Amino acid sequence: MQLFFLSMCTQIAVASFAPYLQIVFRNKGYSHSLCGVLIALCQLSAIVVPMVISSLSDKKGRTKPFLILSALLAILFSFPYILSGNIALVALSAFLMNGFFWCMNPLADGFINRSLKGDSSRYGTIRAMGTFAYVSTLVIFGILGWPREDENSSILKCMMVSLPLLFLVCASLKEEVREKGKESTFSLSVFPRRFYFFLIVVAFTRLGQAVVEKLLSAYMTENLGLGNRFILFIALGAAFEVFCMVLFGRLKKKGVMTSLTILRISAVALVIRLLLYLIPGLLPFILAQTLHGLTFGALHLSATSYIADNVDSSHYDLGMTMYWSLATNLPELIGALFGGFIIESFGYSMLFLSYSVFPLIGFVLSYVWKGILEGKER
Question: Most CB within 10 Å of its CB: which of 109, 123, 160, 268?
């Protein structure tokens, strides 16, 4: 039961924070290009800090203390990040707050996978419950009209409900101390060659996903005029994620689909999703949102199951963090950085069209490197 609570409270915290990152900066009056730079800075932190924390977690053989530390520091740095009007302080606190906040996803995934001994079906179910909590939180926000999307203090109050809750759940975890890592901190030699090729393929798909994860909130509030209802459209996408997590987890366990097959389906779905955003009107946008179950849910299940199958359990924390940092946050850093300038110079249509190329490249590479990814080539 503690695994369900950990997954659910982690995703409730994500719901109170992630959709508002771009909006918090826009509320401060920053331009799209400056927002892109700041979001990229936040993504840089989400790469560096989790790598340090997870490697320490592996070295010490403990996850719980680092989950607690990350939640506590995320709470502390959120105040200057959201409330300050000084650009230098905002940049520094946003960097630190994001770094420690995004430690929690890979650490929680590593903790859950280790507890389940790499069972992708059970992980899919638990992660789906986390997503269900995420969806429910967003729907409640949309119905209540809280937090207000145009008021940063309201967003902070929301975070001050979810983050302390996550802190308490992390503090209550019961963890068996595992064998301490024998390798030095940051040693990457413990992973097989195919793991790194897999990360490269995933990274190309995440370049396209940067549009969805980092740059779509302002599009919904400013271009589509959805106001606070934008959160309901994020919830719509996440609702389909629950279904895909459970479905693909079971298909993977039964041997109907491999992790690579699921990855390819996700890449194609992302190309279609980004192209759908080019079609004017709310209906194509809604259809595009429903593909989130494939573009994120299926992809995440693919990645976690591939890591569980190819990485020693004593290195799950570092393996999951490398996936989040190098295959997710790094490409989203690049995507957000250049995306902000593309929006400002050419508009959202060019953003959607140009970024649809990247998941297509990932799809092609998954076949070019098929032998390596399946462990048939040394």
Answer: 109
